Input
Amino acid sequence: MSFLENLLAAIATAPLIPGILVMVGGVAWGIIGGAIPGISGAVAMALALPYTFGLDAATALVLLAGVWAGANYGGSIPAILLRMPGTPAAAAAVLDGYELKRQGLASKALGVSLICGTIGGLISIIVLIAMVVPLGNLLLAFASPEIFALALFGLTLIAGLTERSFLKGLASGFFGLLLTTVGLDTLTGSLRFTFGRSQFLSGLDIISVMVGLFAVSEMFYQISHPTRGAPELVGRASTAFPTFAELRGVWRATVVGTIVGIIVGIMPGAGATASSFVAYNEAKRWSKRPDLFGKGSMEGVAAPETANNAVQGGDLVPTLALGIPGSNSAAIMLAALILHGIVPGPFLLTKHTGLVFTLFAGLIMVNLLMIPVGTVILRGCLLVLRLSPPVLIGSILAIVVIGTYAADLFLLNPVLALAFGIIGYGMRSFGFSAAATVLGMVLGVLAESELRRSLLISYGSWAIFVTRPAAAVLLLLTLGVLLYPAVMYARSHRRARPASSGNTAGSV
Output
């Protein structure tokens, strides 16, 4: 059978598996799990993994695929409604999603997130199906130098996350980098900034820090500004999906998010969080209305949410083609394959053709199920906005404490969330960027570890970053991104000079 015939046959037989119910259940749990702070997509999949032991391999993979797809979207629900990202990857959606909610457009923002995320997920799966083998071979050329160059490129996006002051954005990003140095050194095992406390050996929990900087700080802000923080919801609860005209308005951001999500997802270690922030920054760069970003732009929701969902297809490329998980969620899929006696790698497609195509068909179908299942769940979520401010604030703070503790059953995590809530309130008051701090934390560990591995490989020679073509290209792109604002400023300043001199001459 041909490649297309195998896929069509898998789609035709997928509902016979006990497919549809398994997919719906997986997507629903993924959305709910992703919406609970502290339960990331990987945790939601891990909680579902024991239920796959009694299932056949195809059904197990379809169930986990549904949880993965649902969790990718679920994290954006509290991010938009409550300024509390359910997953790290949803942190970028806070920037414009919550502003849209404050303008009474919460349901519209959730609709854009759902539809654009579904589009990104479907396209990434199609790319996965068409190019899993060639992309897997290409991935073999990527090693520590290339991953470091990618992380460095991502760190340049800090400049785009701050409107008020570039220096404050830079300081916020460096603060995030500093936070990643707490705990055991990943290469030598030496202690760094633990202050003799064993609780800091594993470092600072990024979920707790992120929830504190965004959600808890917002609750403190609403307590201190009660008239500004009242939630808004006009009319009955509905998802208010974007119209065709509105979808046309965000098509550029959707394309950018899809491309970024697929590319970043293919590279092991980068992850959905990095892709969301990269997509947000690139969408702002290509937008016709960049001035709206951070103030309630639909494109600012569409781009990161599309990238967040598009990562799924990219993550599965190294997982299926090479047996190398591209993320924690992909590692759960890898574990499910191994538990059912299937060895991922270059021969997976030839030895288990039927299973692989069933997985492909299931991935397509769970992404299609996202819209109806998401619609049902969103109607209940929107009712949260009808709560009075004191009840809403108290409930959110309770969820923060329970969610951050439940993630690792570690008492330090709720304390960290509350402490960083105070820090986040101060950062907000003085114009610093919480998003830049989160980006610094996300990419800091990756950049440091891959830089040091690269130097170990090259015996301390920095030439490894310019002699490898892919790393050199990424570093050149980084340099271009850094120089572009300075060049544009110089050009505008040069144009302003003749105009000002002409006005002076005319007045004389």
User: Anything to note?
Assistant: The chain has one domain: 3-230+242-467. The chain has 22 helices and two strands. Residues 3-230+242-467 form one domain. Confidence is low (pLDDT under 50) at residues 228-239.
